[in-house]
Write a structure and sequence with these properties.
The chain is mainly alpha-helical and about 230 residues long. About 75% of the residues lie in helices and about 0% in strands. Helix 1 (about 10-15) crosses helix 8, helix 5 (about 75-110) packs antiparallel against helix 6 (about 115-150) and helix 6 (about 115-150) packs antiparallel against helix 7 (about 155-185).
Length: about 230
């Protein structure tokens, strides 16, 4: 059994993606908060780390599905996967959730004032992520593929500059969704919530779950490997 206490959360999920579900259930951030050790994360959440260590140890005795062994994928394939899976999810949910969060704030905001902040936060997320995804698809990911093909020095410089900025944008989006989670009491619909209220909270939870995986794949796998490629001679 591994000594999980001192291993970073992001590294644990990188080694075995199935650990993401364990951390999600415990309310532990494995993407933007992936640089914390398991012991630090459990201390913050007031969780007994031995319980999670036991759950993680059980994974060691079962075979990993090769489809989810993202750490073994080629970087160009991983870039395409992120675009075709996570970027498409973001682009599908952004306009729906921007409209829905504003709608339920207008209808229910008097009795649930937290909806005003939720709508404002998601509006910011929408604006930031639209630009973020565009930059990844048009600038960063092509630069990664170019370095893989030609070892281009110019593309290496692009990788270094873009990733530095993009990690900060991940911090913003992740932090904003964490705040929405808290404001909504983990997406708990109040008794007077209408169907649109329920749909909105369900979609917000879907968006957050997808964002955690999306950011994990970039922060903990794609970006570090791309930066190692970009070390200039």
């Amino acid at each position: 059994m591994k000594n999980y206490k001192e291993i970073k959360i992001g590294e644990i999920v990188t080694q075995d993606f199935r650990a993401a579900e364990i951390f999600k259930n415990a309310g532990i951030d494995f993407c933007c908060g992936g640089n914390q050790s398991l012991e630090q994360a459990c201390r913050e959440k007031k969780i007994d780390s031995t319980v999670l260590e036991t759950e993680l140890a059980k994974l060691e005795h079962t075979t990993v599905n090769a489809l989810h062994n993202f750490n073994e994928w080629n970087l160009d394939f991983l870039c395409d996967y992120i675009v075709n899976t996570h970027h498409k999810t973001v682009m599908r949910l952004l306009p729906q959730l921007t409209a829905y969060t504003q709608k339920i704030e207008q209808v229910h905001g008097v009795h649930h004032p937290e909806l005003k902040e939720i709508a404002a936060l998601f509006s910011q997320i929408n604006e930031e992520l639209l630009q973020h995804l565009k930059k990844e698809e048009e600038v960063l990911f092509p630069a990664i593929k170019e370095v893989l093909k030609t070892n281009s020095p110019a593309s290496k410089k692009i990788i270094i500059s873009e990733i530095t900025r993009m990690k900060g944008e991940h911090e913003f989006a992740g932090g904003a969704m964490d705040k929405i989670n808290v404001l909504s009491d983990n997406y708990s619909v109040p008794d007077d919530g209408c169907n649109t209220y329920r749909v909105t909270y369900k979609l917000l939870e879907e968006f957050e779950d997808d964002l955690h995986i999306h950011v994990h794949l970039e922060n903990n796998i794609l970006y570090p490997k791309a930066l190692s490629l970009a070390i200039l001679d």
